Amino acid sequence: MTNSSQSKSKFSSKPELKQSTPLAGAVSKPKAAAVPYSLPKIMAARANAHRAHVDDPTNTRERILFAAVEILNTKGFGALTQTCVAERAGVRQSHLTYYFPMRNDLLRETAVYGCNAMLDAMSGGIDSGAITLANFREFLTADIHDRRFARLMSALIVASDEDDRIKPWLASFEEANRQRLQDSFHKLGIDFSHAALELFHATMVGALILDLGESTTQSLIRTQRIIQQAFDLMLASAQPVPIKSASAKNIRNIENNANGKTRKKST
User: Fold this and answer.
1) In contact, 85 and 64? CB cutoff 8 Å
2) I need a surface site. Which of 31, 73, 117, 231 has the fewest CB within 10 A?
3) Confidence band, pLDDT 50/70/90 cuts, at residue 204
């Protein structure tokens, strides 16, 4: 392995959870009651984009990450080898190791890729008005039966037990995810304490991983109930944020709710 490759295998202290370019069609406005944003649908959109540019040599890294997500979700963490991913992506293994020298480097970046896809689409949905405070609860559990987010998180936990370098990175990765989730709530016009958000996030991730372990209809129903109850509890502690932080549609909703309460008091 070259010096440049060795340097790439080192884990940075903070994950690069940047807001990437939105997916084509990811923020299109759906019918009023629809909740079109869920990880399966988001990854399906990426699959279409991937196939449309599969021959573009500049997309090698994206092709590798997409292949890794597919393998992780269909075959599990044990099948996530550099050889298997290179074959699925249609690239030489030397190309894969150029970007991801070690297996856990690949897993780490696959997690960032998958979570960014979901968080970017969520943020775009809020900006377009497709996701509102009224339907956010449903968004959280939309297509929950797919279980691919839980597979991703459980794979990271297993990997961190094998490689101590992942542990501090995983802590930073989860903190970055919580911050982006809080930013999304700010767009919806509400804010929570750091402790309330931590409790909700831990409850949601824990419930999803427990459901993955059981993978039954009963565990799925229980998980959906737990996540929605945790969200309701967190929502009960919400505080308003300055109106400029909310999206235009949610500003109107806040104003309408306030006007409605005023009219009731006057009558």
Assistant:
1) yes
2) 31
3) very high
